[in-house]
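go over both lines:
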Amino acid sequence: MRIAIDAMGGDLAPQAPVEGALAAAREWPDTQLLLVGKPEAIKSHLGTNPPSNISIVEAMDTIEADDEPVRAVRRKANSSMVVAGRMVKEGQADAMISAGNTGALMTVGLLVVGRMEGIERPGLTAILPTVDGVGVVALDLGANMDAKPEHLLQYALMGSRYREKVHGIARPRVGLLNVGTEAAKGNEQSKAAFELLSGAPINFIGNVEARDVLTRNCDVLVCDGFSGNILLKAIEGAAETVFGVLKTELTSSWKSKLAAAILRPNFGRVRKMMDYKRYNGAPLLGVSGLVVKGHGSSNAEATMHAIRQARTAVGNGLISALADDLGGK
């Protein structure tokens, strides 16, 4: 298995991608990790004796966070992100991971890797944390801001198959994000999508509200990229805010500090449960190769989890399963 990693993408690049790859290389010696980017910058974080299953692929340009996506992909053909995408397209890598410019990565998926036959709009897929530690697969979380009902149907089909193939959940429950659970709720897009999903070959349970997502009232959450991205950022922000407030309160007096010391293991488990780094790695479903988006602020730990996600998807034949099930539909 070969996974190409955009070593120059992300807020903490190249240190975080390289250090994450080092940890992953030691954890999974059967996986070849291809660090794509400027060799000297990568080598400065590799150390003197890196594992034999890590190698460097030269790419001397970088797509920046503020670059216009389509223009950057077309003009920076030797950027680390584009080179990694081309490796997937040409069969030199089984998957690619990047924490860089989201719009540019979507463009690489469409223009370089190529869209899967039968899929109109690929969707960015991620796992949202839940209180039981299992998580909810949600898509789209930012690839397409203005999705049509037909696109939401394709997201439901792909998300259901992803949950089955990668996570081993038989007949995953598919829910449609809405402002209420009643079938007649929502805007015209959601009403039309409800009708399409009701007749699809999936275990559709109807509309679900955002307040119930963290209790895993469904296994796959379908939404457009605009609503999905807002939901994702709201969950991340709420978690950080709550833990910040708790930290302030639990260090405000000696009694609070004593209570905090006693409850430290409990708080640690809760923080781990809600930590986005454990769920890092969002596949762009609907393209003909495995393209995985990492969180822009991914550190080494988050990078390692993204590699874990890519390994699982490749090992379970996700892309070929999607092509067999959905191609031409």
In short: The two ends are 29 Å apart (CA to CA).
